[in-house]
Amino acid sequence: MVIMESRFVVVILFIFSTLLSCNKQPDKKELPVINLNSISAINDSITLSLDDLGWKEKLIPLETNDSCLLADISVICESINNYWIVSNGEVLKFDKEGRYDRRIGKVGQGPEEYGSAYKIQLDKKAEEVYVMDYFGRKMVVYDFNGKFIRTFRLPEKEFMANFSLYGNTLYYHGIENSLIPTLLAEDIKTRKMETICSPDREMEVGEIMLGNSFMSEVNDEIYLYHYFNDTIYRITPEKKLEAAGFINMKNLMFVYDEIILVGDKTAKMKQGGPRVLVDNFINTDNLFFVFYRLCDEMAAGANSSPHLAVCDKISKKEYANVALLHSAEPALSIRNTSKLFSADGKRIISYIQADALAETDLVPGLKEDDNPVLVIYYKE
User: Fold this and answer.
1) Could you tell me if residue 8 is inside a domain?
2) Nearest to 91 by CA among 102, 81, 82
3) C or N: which end of the chain has fewer Cβ atoms within 10 Å?
4) Predicted local distance difference test score (pLDDT) of residue 23
């Protein structure tokens, strides 16, 4: 995605120091650190056993019929009795055994419809589904049976392409090339909106948008990681940012001039070597997962190589390039191309296409063209 309209670059460095001073920051030596600042370390791949890490798995084949044929899955959420899947812009509900229940809402341009489901979040207490229609610039809310409840407009800033729901608060965040991202908090009852933090710069014309933000909830605590910043933050009950860990890239992080395209679509400044770009950040009660790419000449569209880094938050052990292997079935291993979705501190959800498992005996009767199989990784 590229910024197309002219903006004036504003640098407000004191914002960062102000945020850090809002709350006492823990000693950096006490916090987990993932070091992605060395090409030699990144190239030194290792393997670990899921069994040794204490992770087990449960397979849930999703029912296949003409009413619920799934393309690629972009979102998986979990409630007590159901899994909620976003596929091809639609929201589908399955029970805990994988049986199809229903579609949620309708696709369309009407006031009770959404054009395309971009992201969803669940209010498990109220039993409501929040559906972000990003291109329609609205949020549509349904109950767990798919009945329309209400709709409201999204924040005006177009880069606010993601949201999270924790308690009674909607957090809006997105893609923003800045040290500090925009993070908005909206009370779902009063609709009062407040700004938790604001960017230290505005993006320029022709700038490739790389600054993704990732939010997660572990043991009732909310975490935020934003690319272009080396800090994994915890959001306190007072909505202050407090350091909870670090992803150290140093000179392997993109600098802004390397991703600002000028004239003939070349970068303002030639890329000074390989760069690390984070694609996904998953947080559990004892592990950080960082899915990232090592990129050559991002502006030129060159190929990039995927990697997975893992850090044990308790022991502080870190692995810059690791595969987590399943002892019995390679298809169940967690690798650099795996698609993981946060569930809670002790569970991670993924999925595997049916053709990768059809020739095994893990799911009896599974056919190659069936719907994907959910994989629930958990710790007892």
Assistant:
1) no
2) 102
3) C
4) 46
Query: Which residues, given as ranges, of the chain have pLDDT below 70?
Result: 1-28, 158, 299-302
Residue 267: closest CA among 13, 7, 275: 275
Classify residue 4: in a domain, yes or no: no
- What is the pLDDT at residue 253? 97
CB 292 within 8 A of CB 277: yes
Q: What is the pLDDT at residue 66?
A: 96
Q: What CATH number is attached to the domain comprising 27?
A: 2.120.10.30
DSSP 295: E
On whether the CB atoms of residues 65 and 100 are closer than 8 A, the answer is yes
Rg of the chain (C-alpha set): 21
The pairing of beta strand 90-95 with beta strand 100-104: antiparallel
What confidence tens digit (pLDDT) does each residue in 260-299 have?
988 878 889 988 899 999 999 999 999 999 999 999 877 6
Which amino acid is it at 99? R
Residue 169 identity: T
Give Cβ neighbours of residue 26 (< 8 Å, ≥ 6 apart): 242, 243, 244
Does 359 map to a domain? yes
Domain count, the chain: 1
How far apart, in whole angstroms, are the C-alpha atoms of residue 103 and residue 305? 36
Q: Does residue 17 sit in helix, strand or coil?
A: helix
Helix (H, G, I), strand (E, B) or coil at 33: strand
pLDDT of residue 302: 65
Residues 6 or more apart from 267 whose CB is under 8 A from it?
A: 257, 258, 259, 260, 261, 298, 299
Q: Which of 292, 301, 306 is nearest to 267 (CA)?
A: 301
Kindly give the pairing relationship between strand 347-352 and strand 340-344: antiparallel
DSSP per-residue string spanning 255-303:
PGGGGBEETTTEESS---S-EEEEEEEEE-SSEEEEEEEEES-GGGT--
Provide the residue range defining the domain that includes 160: 14-378
CA separation for the pair 319, 46 (Å, rounded): 8
**Is 294 inside a domain boundary?**
yes
